[in-house]
Design brief:
It is built from 11 helices and 7 strands. Helix 4 (79-90) runs antiparallel to helix 10 and helix 8 (145-156) packs parallel to helix 9. Helices cover 37% and strands 9% of the residues. The strands form 2 sheets. The chain has a 5-stranded mixed β-sheet, covered by helices on one side. The protein has helices spanning 14-19, 29-33, 59-70, 79-90, 95-105, 109-116, 138-143, 145-156, 202-213, 229-236, 254-266, and strands at 2-3, 7-8, 130-135, 162-164, 173-178, 190-192, 195-197. Among the domains are: 2-33, no CATH class; 59-116, Arc Repressor Mutant, subunit A, CATH 1.10.10; 130-231, Glutaredoxin, CATH 3.40.30. The structure holds FE2/S2 (inorganic) cluster. FE2/S2 (inorganic) cluster (FES) binds at residues 135, 137-140, 180-184, 187, 189.
Length: 287
């Protein structure tokens, strides 16, 4: 058993083994965690670690970074899309990427790290061509999300935040279990590179992942056509690279609009806004 970053995992260290996606005896953590595929309460949160890659961001990336910063009144406000921009290059957030962003907006490495570690969309391990996210939050879990995650872990032979195949190569897949994907009306939900695949079952999710590994790109239930994780990151940074149609891809479905339709059918309307609403309080100036 080998942890791709730290080498062989000592069987005497069950916590290290769990972080590597295996139990101390080498079985997938899904078995160790049980059917629910959830970590045991004593699983320790790893200390934030950023891999140093020596990657040098080129002129095009610098130009894009300047465009992002120009969108905001304060450079530091551009940090989130900048972090997506560097992920679109390396497929994860390396220390080089973190420092690149921090330097551009004039903040410390610790400040940038504090933001990056708050959001789960910033990855500290290289991702596969595709990122498969399985919702195991309350609604989806009740409808079978945990079973889907367990099936995919078994199918891929890896655990949470681990990659089947060489990260970044065609057909490689990173899997994770995530909190609510804001599509509870279509649960259980899986996303690939943040595009929605609604009403999944263990079988349909396994078929989806198998297709990704074959190099196919099944069309999401709603929204834009599937792309790669890196290209999705570029879009999250605000660059569409000839995929402008993605912005207008349909995202609503009858289930989501049911309440609006009921209100229309029954003549329900929202109460009117007051004619003289109180003024907003003055906001302190941002520094
Ligand atoms: S609980 Fe899964 S999308 Fe909300």
């Amino acid at each position: 058993m080998t942890d791709k970053r730290n080498g062989p995992v000592p069987v005497s260290d069950p916590n290290a083994a769990m972080l590597a996606g295996r139990t101390a005896h080498g079985t997938p953590t899904t078995e160790f965690w049980g059917e629910a595929g959830r970590p045991t309460p004593n699983r320790r949160t790893p200390v934030p670690h950023y891999e140093t890659t020596g990657y040098e961001f080129g002129d095009e990336t610098r130009s894009r970074a300047e465009q992002i910063i120009a969108r905001y009144p304060h450079p530091r406000s551009a940090l989130l899309p900048l972090l997506h921009l560097v992920q679109s290059e390396e497929g994860f957030l390396s220390r080089d990427g973190l420092l690149f962003c921090a330097d551009l907006v004039g903040i410390s490495e610790a400040e940038a790290s504090g933001t990056a570690t708050y959001y789960t969309m910033y990855k500290r391990e290289p991702c596969g061509e595709h990122l498969v996210s399985v919702c195991t939050n309350t609604m989806c879990a009740a409808l079978g999300g945990d079973a889907i995650f367990a099936r995919l872990c078994d199918r891929l032979g890896v655990g949470h935040e681990q990659t089947a195949g060489e990260p970044g190569t065609p057909g490689s897949v990173t899997i994770e279990h995530v909190e609510c994907l804001a599509a509870c009306d279509f649960g259980p939900v899986v996303t690939v590179n943040y595009e929605l695949f609604d009403k999944q079952t263990p079988d349909s999710a396994e078929e989806l992942v198998t297709a990704l590994q074959r190099g196919e790109r099944p069309h999401p239930t709603r929204g834009a056509p599937l792309t790669s994780f890196k290209q999705a990151e570029l879009q999250l940074a605000g660059f569409w690279d000839g995929r402008e149609d993605d912005v207008d891809a349909p995202s609503a479905a009858p289930e989501s609009l049911r309440g609006v339709q009921l209100a229309a059918d029954r003549g329900w309307t929202a109460p009117p806004m007051p004619s003289d609403p109180p003024p907003f309080p003055d906001l302190p100036e941002k520094k």
